[in-house]
Amino acid sequence: LPELRLVQSLLDTKGVYILDCWSDVFIWIGRKSPRLVRAAALKLGQELCSMLHRPKHACVTRNLEGAECQVFKSKFKNWDDVLKVDYTRAAETVQQNDNLQGKVKKDAEQKDQMKADLTALFLPRQPAMPLTEAEQLMEEWNEDLDGMEGFVLEGKKFTRLPEEEFGHFYTQDCYVFLCRYWVPVEYEDEDEEKEKKGGEAGRGGGGGGKGDEDEEDKQPEEDFQCVVYFWQGRQASNMGWLTFTFSLQKKFESLFPGKLKVVRMTQQQENLKFLSHFKRKFIIHKGKRKQNTDSVQPSLYHIRTNGSALCTRTIQIGTDSSNLNSEFCFILKVPFESTDNQGIVYTWVGRAADPDEAKLAEDIMNSMFDDTYSKQVINEGEEPENFFWVGIGSQKEYDEDAEYMKYARLFRCSNEKGYFSVSEKCSDFCQDDLADDDIMLLDNGKEVYMWVGTQTSQVEIKLSLKACQVYIQHMRAKDSEYPRKLRLVRKGNEPHCFTRCFHAWGPFKTPPS
């Protein structure tokens, strides 16, 4: 403690603090503190209060950041919200003081001119990564990979994942992948080595053979680094992360001291290097891994690439023909109630789909399903009536283009930095990037949607509306052929033109009760 006194600066907004004053136990809760920590602190405060002999009036008081009681504030040095007033001066003398009047005026002007950072709105859209560049990156990262082990949470412990299941993920499960990478060794320059050899030869004279042997021995050994990737499905609880932290992570840290790095990821927000290890065959199924309740029901998978071939995912979506799109490829599984033939699987290729993606879709189908299924690649317009349309439900209207993929941009408007700022999400954005306490701007090339979360402040709404107008004016000046229209969207009421910009749109995650 500075000068053995409590000061306000000790309190961090991301933390929770307990202050024991014998007759009072205060719990101070920072606004950005985790929910689990808050709950633990409240329980600990009650236990702490009952542990010691205290006065009958002793109680536990909860103080939220920004709404602290005066008794709590009095425990801290110079924490005083009371305005200092000099009662010895008359009002006339205060008004006559030009310096003070000027200062008040300047402060008022500064308050009116709120700081705002809108730079992201004027930056060009991130271009898509060429396929050759993505493949080169994929190759380089996989060359560095020495080995990969997978684990999946079953019950309350992680069990080893069979290699044939690598690349298959389930929305209600948590996975851990331990990857061992070679770290390139830095060798000295050849010129420096020659100079050293020449100097040693001049000083030492003979014994060259022994020197060569020593040099071979002194060559640095190849080093390695271990990265643990933790993957959590959209519908999985945070218990998986807690289980990993207190069990598997401890084990890995003891096995690889000083060489371990942990990367936590959630569904569709994966690390690019991690994605590269699956070579574009990254498949996300609904439900749990060992749950075959819906095995009799048809299932539909959407293959989509967001901004780079590295970000290619095959995700199970609702089995409905309205989800089809002529610019993408889909995989439809129609199961049979038969022992010798489990069903038929179609790879549906849209008429405007990329040929490389069509080939990839066929490869994914062959890797997903064994020979117990009949497999067939069909082009749009050549669907067999008996199984395809019956399996998918019925024939409905669907989108015939995906022009929005060329223009889609997602911006986040927030004042969490203490001032209003706009930042752009990467081109590989997903539904979970929509922050409930912020405003999001989505540009699909025709409309700019202002998405409002349920916990957004009125100040953010007003400032974001201005930012929207600025962006639309900027785009109109830059690209007059495609003037954008402003649309307001509230969370839970998103139209199809909004949701189709997100891969595998579904119900929003509900926070654990």
Protein architecture, described:
With 513 residues, the protein is an alpha/beta fold. The protein has four domains: 2-73, Severin, CATH 3.40.20; 121-186 and 221-289, Severin (3-Layer(aba) Sandwich), CATH 3.40.20; 292-401, Severin (3-Layer(aba) Sandwich), CATH 3.40.20.10; 404-499, Severin. The chain is built from 16 helices and 21 strands. The strands form four sheets. The chain has a seven-stranded mixed sheet, with helices on both faces. Strands 4-18-17-19-20-21 form a six-stranded mixed sheet. Strand 1 (16-20) and strand 2 form a beta hairpin. The chain is globular and about 90 Å long. The model is unreliable at 201-210 (pLDDT under 50).
